Amino acid sequence: MSDSRIIPNLSSWLPRIGLSTLIVCLASGIVLAFYYRPAGDVFRNVEEITTHVPFGWFFRQLHYGAGQLFVILMLLHTLDHFLKRRYARYPLRVWVSLILAVLLCLLTLFTGFILKGDKEAVFAGRIFMNILQTMPAVGIPLSRLFIRSGEDFFFLPYLYHCLFLPLLIIYLIQGHIREWFPDKGFMTAGVVGLFLYAFWIQPDPAIPPGAMVESVKGPWFFLGIQTLLKFLPPLMAGIIIPGLVLMGVFILPLTSGKRRAEDGGGVHLKTDWFRYTILVLIVIYGTLTLKAAIWGI
Ligand code: HEM
Predict the structure, then answer these.
(1) What's the pTM value of the predicted model, to 2 decimals?
(2) In Å, what is the CA distance from 190 to each residue of 21, 23, 157?
(3) 103-144 tens-digit pLDDT
(4) Nearest residue to 221 (alpha-carbon basis) of 109, 78, 58
(5) With the C-alpha atoms ordered 183, 200, 74, 59, is the resulting torsion angle positive or negative?
(6) CATH number for the domain including 161?
(7) Which domain holds residue 183?
(8) Mean pLDDT of the region 43-60
(9) Considering its fold, how many domains does the chain have in total?
(10) Which end of the chain has fewer CB atoms < 10 Å from its terminal CB, N or C?
């Protein structure tokens, strides 16, 4: 028996399980949207969904687990493409659309984090608004497109989270997906795993918006930026540095692209420095994130 049969093929498992978690996430999100109100006392509304709505706690935890797992699997799937230099096979336009879709997945997770309505959520929303507003000229109008202070604080994140972002993600990845429904095995594994998770694992306790706490943490993927914000101005930590890394990832197909594919994947030291620079930056960001998650910011 060949190795590929014995060792599970991770490259093909990641996107298939990812699709099954996306389906669970969308279905549970639709259930939550019937009860969620993005105005008034949002924290209380979310607490009521958890305690008063039949199985509300279950659907919240199911949606949370499915959303997190979906995005983590998409990040690993992208990393797998990166490490195996698969970007070389893609035309620039297609690669940029796919990376954009991954970014929008992170934005969906971020807006979901805001929708919780607790102290951490309000804090994360305000930091996001402040970072956007530091952009010269376009900052304030741009931030108003995503989030506003006052009564309507949750409304735009709600609209993006439940409607615009999922639709845009599906639009961007449609050409990349061969089968929208993973075969029965993957679908069952995803559904059973997530249902068991939602039944057994307790969510972290929510912090009421008015509570006094020593420090407030953002979502896990934001912790690296939160750490940088301690040392650098918001424009640098939140826009310029992430923007430059992102630009680097966008243009990867141009740096080794078709030439590498045609050559049969031989090592090109001249172009590999670019790839290694991106890799080092990803490792640095991962280390900052882990450090903040373990030892605090
Ligand atoms: C790619 C798709 C999606 C992802 C990754 C995602 C992820 C998340 C996450 C992580 C949360 C925070 C949950 C918590 O911390 O308790 C959340 C909240 C929420 N999501 Fe989604 N979601 C997605 C799509 C949707 C859709 C399509 C809808 C509705 C049609 C929806 C409705 C909601 C609602 C109402 C909340 C707030 C209630 C709560 O916090 O439990 N989501 N989402």
Answers:
(1) 0.91
(2) 6, 9, 27
(3) 999 999 999 999 999 999 999 999 999 999 999 999 999 999
(4) 109
(5) positive
(6) 1.20.810.10
(7) 7-202
(8) 97
(9) 1
(10) N
